Amino acid sequence: MPHVARTLLYVFGLTALAATWQAVSNYVGSLESVRGLELELTEVRRVDSDSAQLVVQFRLHNRSELPVQLNSYFFDLYLDGNRIGGSSSTWRDDIPDVDRSLYTRASTIEQTLAPYERLDMEFLLHVFDLENFLGASQENSEPLNWSVKAGFRLIHPHSHDERLLRLQATLQEPVP
Hints:
Blueprint: H1 2-35, E1 37-46, E2 53-62, E3 68-79, E4 82-86, E5 107-113, E6 118-126, H2 130-139, E7 144-155, E8 162-173
Antiparallel strand pairs: 1-2, 2-6, 3-4, 3-5, 3-7, 7-8
Protein name: Water stress and hypersensitive response domain-containing protein
């Protein structure tokens, strides 16, 4: 009987060791993949001079050696530290051509970024007080300081754990 008990202890010990090793490797892998993601704000421009709409472009880089599965995202755009809109912006009912489905808080993306791959994203953003925001920067003759704060919900391929990653990027351009 002592031989059977000792064998069972070895089996349980090896099983516990294997489970611990798997958990640690999943955790380290998830940290590595999250650490390799970078956000770049590439362009913010008006659709035309009379429009209150901005085209916002940003790029997500996966600089890690592990794939990252994106589940959803949200973002906010700032001008000189003031939030002027984002994926959770509200819409006005008197603008018939606005697609209301674009204004949900988090948008599903469900895409896997391979190692060293990038994802370019472009959004049309309606800003109700755009003239006021731009006017203050033009009066001071200061460069426009744009920044985007984005959140990406990631699903790690090995553990299927979900993690929210917040990233920020800035772009400075001369006063129009």
